[in-house]
Amino acid sequence: MRFPGRRKHKHYFPVNERDPLLHHAGLDVPEAKIHVVGIDQTLVDIDARVTDDLLARYELPKGGSTIVANDRAAELYEELFSRKQISHEFAGGTVGNTLHNYSLLADDASILLGVMSDVIRVGTSGYRYLSNTSSRVNLDHLQPVDGPIGRCFALVTPDGERTFAISAGKMNDLRPQSIPETIFDRAAALVISAYLMRGDGSEPMPEATRQAVAFAKARGVPVVLTLGTRFVIAERPDFWRTFISENVDIVAMNEEEGEALTGIADPLLACERALDWTSLVLCTAGPTGLYLAGYTDDAVKRATRYPLLPGAIPEFNRYEFSRPVLRRDCPNPIKVFAHIAPYHGGPARITSANGAGDAALSALLHDISANRYHRARVPSSAKHIRDFLTYSSMSQVCRYANRVSYEVLVQSSPRLTRGLPEREEGLNEEAYWAM
């Protein structure tokens, strides 16, 4: 397990070597096996540059996410292909993207649950999905299906707006009995998306998702929900507030999804409102940057050494050097917030924003799993005087998530194609290590 953030050294401690003192005393700690579990609609992202006229002809609401029939999707693909409007085809899915990025950052295992075509031919969607997924993502538990996986068209108009058209294929056919209970025993988190709970009741995916959530909750594994798009949440915001309150520990969203969930446009206030239902909120807010909101116990709060920031909540980052704790584990919970502006002011040119939020979430998951790993290896460490959720402070997690998100913004793929550099110029090492 690599440890998160930009560090002078690759590891916080030699994770591949046994503690010499414990070894001498005959008390070697066994190797800790930590992984992240995710459920996703297995699909391939098809990125294309189109005109508003094409959206109108295919009756696709601009900026929305629409389910289209398989034959209609084939017609759309043929038109885009013949007109040479397709720029890229990648393995996709918000949870699949997140797990791929997590395994690349952590150099460690994750487990993906979903479906996969029983018969795979070169060039098909299933082939592209498997060939573009990190080998550290365990696909052994995918449920075979007789038919294609999904295709998601990301149609970008000249004004930069993204419109999604999704051909479901068999991607929602995951059955509850295909969720293996034992994989949650050593899990650091379960990641799900709002897309999984859509449907008219004819497909088993929502019930399979609830089964996985039940397994995770029974073992105290944090449940992470990424909201998908604002349209999914706006369809039934009351349902999502109740679902989050009853099942979810961490919510990942952008400012539009936050507004759909809370009714509040300001991302900081939306994060604060979401804390009424969950324990930690990650919110990407485009050119404004990235927010992290959560709880810590009053006895272990840590004041920032950075300038206090103005906002809808004055000086909201006062305790951003604190480490988050699940609200149920805080005797005296207080709300804490952190923020960071886009890395280097943001890329000079954004190739595609698709997957940037997934990248930020993967960094947060890396920090969470690193904390679980360290606690298993060094349980007596002062890092674990409380049952903290992350290894690093909220400020540090923001820095890490922001940096990983930047890497996706400057490339075409929604998934990381390489890790972060070990060392970067201009780093204030003393301040960095102090977090």
TrEMBL record:
GO molecular function, one term: inosine kinase activity
Keywords linked to the UniProt accession: Kinase, Transferase
Xref: InterPro entries: Carb_kinase_PfkB-like, IngK, PfkB_dom, Ribokinase-like
A Pfam family of this chain: PfkB
Gene Ontology terms: biological process: GMP salvage; IMP salvage; purine ribonucleoside salvage
Carbohydrate kinase PfkB domain segment(s): 125-294
Superkingdom of the organism of origin: Bacteria
Keyword Ribonucleoprotein: no
SUPFAM superfamilies recorded: Ribokinase-like
Record-linked PANTHER family: CARBOHYDRATE KINASE PFKB DOMAIN-CONTAINING PROTEIN (PTHR43320:SF3), SUGAR KINASE (PTHR43320)
HAMAP family: Gua_Ino_kinase
Protein family: Belongs to the carbohydrate kinase PfkB family.
Name of the protein: Inosine-guanosine kinase
Lineage, uppermost ranks: Bacteria, Pseudomonadati, Myxococcota, Polyangia, Polyangiales
